[in-house]
Write a structure and sequence with these properties.
The model has no long low-confidence stretch (mean pLDDT about 95). Strands 2, 4, 5, 6, 9, 10 and 11 form a seven-stranded mixed β-sheet that branches. The protein has a four-stranded antiparallel β-sheet with strand order 1-3-8-7, with no helix packed on it. Helices cover about 0% and strands about 55% of the residues. It contains no helices and eleven strands. A hairpin with a 4-residue loop joins strand 7 (about 65-70) and strand 8 (about 75-80). The chain is globular.
C-alpha cells in the first residue's frame, strides 16, 4: 500500500484546510485509515480515523471542527479541518491499517498562524 498525503499549508486562525490521502496498491487490504499529527517536541497523536465500514472516531481536541471522509472511487481519504487554531499546527500523516502491518504516508505541514 502506498499513501500520498497533500493539502497542507499556512492558514490564519479560524480558517479551513482539507487534507487528502490518496491510496494505491493493495487497497482491498486496508481496514482503516487514520490521520495523525506531530507537533514539534510532542508525540504523534491520532486525530481521526475511518474504518472500512465507514465508522469514524475523533480526538476530543478536534471534535466538531474536523471531519474525516472517504471517496471510494478515488481511493482517497479526506480530513476537512475547520475553525483551525494555532495548536493545530503540526505535521499531519495518514496511516493505513492492514494485517499485519501499517503503512504511513509522508507528512504534510499545517501551520495555523496570523
Amino acid at each position: 500500500v502506498q499513501l500520498q498525503a497533500s493539502g497542507g499549508g499556512l492558514v490564519q486562525p479560524g480558517g479551513s484546510l482539507r487534507l487528502s490521502c490518496a491510496a494505491s496498491g493493495r487497497i482491498f487490504s486496508i481496514n482503516a485509515v487514520g490521520w495523525y499529527r506531530q507537533a514539534p517536541g510532542k508525540q504523534r497523536e491520532l486525530v481521526a480515523v475511518i474504518t472500512s465500514g465507514g465508522s469514524t472516531n475523533y480526538a476530543d481536541s478536534v471534535k466538531g471542527r474536523f471531519t474525516i471522509s472517504r471517496d471510494n472511487v478515488k481511493n482517497t481519504v479526506y480530513l476537512q479541518m475547520n475553525s483551525l487554531k494555532p495548536e493545530d499546527t503540526a505535521v499531519y500523516y495518514c496511516n493505513a491499517v492492514t494485517v499485519p502491518v501499517d503503512y504511513w504516508g509522508q507528512g504534510t505541514q499545517v501551520t495555523v498562524s496570523s
